């Protein structure tokens, strides 16, 4: 299903998006060496419920997972890049942490992810990898406008990640989003320009470039959810939910206020 949102729904999406951005911003500020992943999940739960929102993850049980997920946020450490299931693990100084959050409020979902280094030990390779996913996300958003094709966004992501030297996995990528978290169209992190669904005002997309250093192969943890680099290499993931407008794309999941691109 591809959903085109009404102006009223987009107004509610802005509220949901700001909530997601604010929660991720708050969690990033709280995370330090010694923080337990289960603490992060409890903090996320509290902020979601206090806002009158609903987690997209707790009851999430797709075909590729061993559901239900049972937690409020995805927490990936170092080589864990997608669907990281919170567990009893304390962060160390220098860990590369990815937080991925999706909630529904007012009947509209929003989804975003951030990667950052915990503490003061910031390996240059980690900083560069995170920056590459952020730059790829920026490049895709810059292409998002009425009349553009999904392939234009995918190609923009691939161009940045490949130029930075990272192999690109196309098993998991971005997606349409609206009244539910995962919808069509799929937005792969590699593609051909001029191909795919044509963007139009009212369409919402969650764009999510992610990479693993030196490999494009994933392996699944025994928990049935957490996806890791097959070689144990470090990983990074950046994501925003955007809305296509008459003029371009509006980023909905920035903390504080929506931003126009």
Describe it for me?
28% of the residues lie in helices and 24% in strands. It is α+β, with helices and mostly antiparallel strands. The chain has one domain (7-260): Creatine Amidinohydrolase (Alpha-Beta Complex). A hairpin with a 7-residue loop joins strand 14 (249-251) and strand 15. Helix 1 packs antiparallel against helix 2 and helix 3 runs antiparallel to helix 4 (150-163). The two termini are 26 Å apart. The model is unreliable at 257-261 (pLDDT under 50).
Strand order of the largest sheet: 7-6-8-13-14-15
Unreliable stretches: 257-261
Do you know the CATH architecture?
Alpha-Beta Complex
Reading the helices and strands in chain order gives HHEEEEEHHEEEEEEEEEE
Seen as an oligomer or otherwise, the chain set is single chain
What's the overall geometry? Answer: globular
Mean pLDDT: 96
Number of domains: 1
Text of the CATH class: Alpha Beta
- Find the count of extended strands (DSSP E, 2+ residues): 15
Q: What fraction of the residues are assigned to beta strands by DSSP?
A: 15-25%
Characterize the biggest β-sheet.
6 strands, antiparallel
- CATH homologous superfamily title: Creatinase/methionine aminopeptidase superfamily
How many individual helices?
4
Q: Quickly give the structural class.
A: alpha+beta
Helix content: 25-40%
**Radius of gyration (Å):** 17 Å
CATH topology: Creatine Amidinohydrolase
Distance between the termini: 26 Å
Catalytic activity: Release of N-terminal amino acids, preferentially methionine, from peptides and arylamides
Protein name: Methionine aminopeptidase
Binding site for a divalent metal cation 2: 111, 175, 208, 239
InterPro entries: Creatinase/aminopeptidase-like, Pept_M24, Pept_M24_MAP, Pept_M24A_MAP1
């Amino acid at each position: 299903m591809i959903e085109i949102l009404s102006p009223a729904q987009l107004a509610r999406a802005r509220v949901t998006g700001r909530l997601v951005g604010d929660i991720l911003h708050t969690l990033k500020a709280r995370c330090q060496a010694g923080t337990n992943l289960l603490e992060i999940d409890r903090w996320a739960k509290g902020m979601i419920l206090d806002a009158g929102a609903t987690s997209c993850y707790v009851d999430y049980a797709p075909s590729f997972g061993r559901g239900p997920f049972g937690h409020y946020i995805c927490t990936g450490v170092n080589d864990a890049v997608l669907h990281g299931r919170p567990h009893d693990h304390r962060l160390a100084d220098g860990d590369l942490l990815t937080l991925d959050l999706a909630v529904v409020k007012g009947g509209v979902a929003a989804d975003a992810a951030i990667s950052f280094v915990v503490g003061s030990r910031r390996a240059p390779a980690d900083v560069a990898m995170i920056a590459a996913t952020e730059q790829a996300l920026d490049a895709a958003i810059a292409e998002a406008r009425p009349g553009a094709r999904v392939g234009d966004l995918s190609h923009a992501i691939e161009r940045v990640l490949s130029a930075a030297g990272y192999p690109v996995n196309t098993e998991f990528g971005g997606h349409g989003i609206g009244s539910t978290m995962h919808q069509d169209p799929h937005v792969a992190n590699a593609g051909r320009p001029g191909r795919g669904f044509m963007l139009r005002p009212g369409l919402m997309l969650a764009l999510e470039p992610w990479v693993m250093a030196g490999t494009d192969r994933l392996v699944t943890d025994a928990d049935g959810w957490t996806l890791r680099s097959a070689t144990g290499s470090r990983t990074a993931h950046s994501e925003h939910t955007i809305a296509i407008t008459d003029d371009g794309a509006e980023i909905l999941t920035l903390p504080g206020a929506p931003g126009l691109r």
